[in-house]
Amino acid sequence: MRPDVEREYVEYVKVRLPRLHRTAYLLCADAFQADDIVQATLTDLYVGWKRAAGADNLDGYVHRIMVRRYLDERRRGWSRVLLGDRLPDLGASADHGVDERDALVTALRSLPKGQRAVVVLRYFGDLSIEATAEALGCSAGNVKSQCSRGLATLRAALDAEHPVTTAERARDRS
Asked: N or C, which end of the chain has less CB nearby within 10 Å?
């Protein structure tokens, strides 16, 4: 790769890397697997940078690669293997924000892969409906219906875990 073209790639990756890591983590809920997904995505992007750089929506192109890498990881049988002789200690946390984040990640895990990808790209990746559809290679209507179903499932899961009383709802409205 020519130095000027490689510099474009490096600049793109430097700016987008934190967001790519966050998106990958929200897709798979595992920091190490997220690192692997981002690395595979960036490798594919590097190999096809000349073609990717000419894309109308480069971020959508990269998100599509990332979702495909995530789905590829999920298809492999070893992705469900837990290595180690004991489960990690998940003791009570004093930070309420961590508990909320964990509840959200757990609820995201419960979504089917397609709904999870749409919800993560739309609401955590800040992509438009059209950009999400392009990244996933589906129609805008499919994105809307998957979002609707995914958000309904998330609300139900989060409400079941943290029921809100009538008094709290009234307080929040005022």
From this structure: C
Give this prediction's pTM: 0.55
Number of domains in the chain: 1
| Domain that includes residue 57, residue range | 3-77+95-169
Q: 147 vs 14, 112, 142, CA distance in Å?
A: 30, 11, 8
CATH (domain of 47): 1.20.140.160
pLDDT > 90 in the chain, percent = 28
Residue 110 counted as domain residue: yes
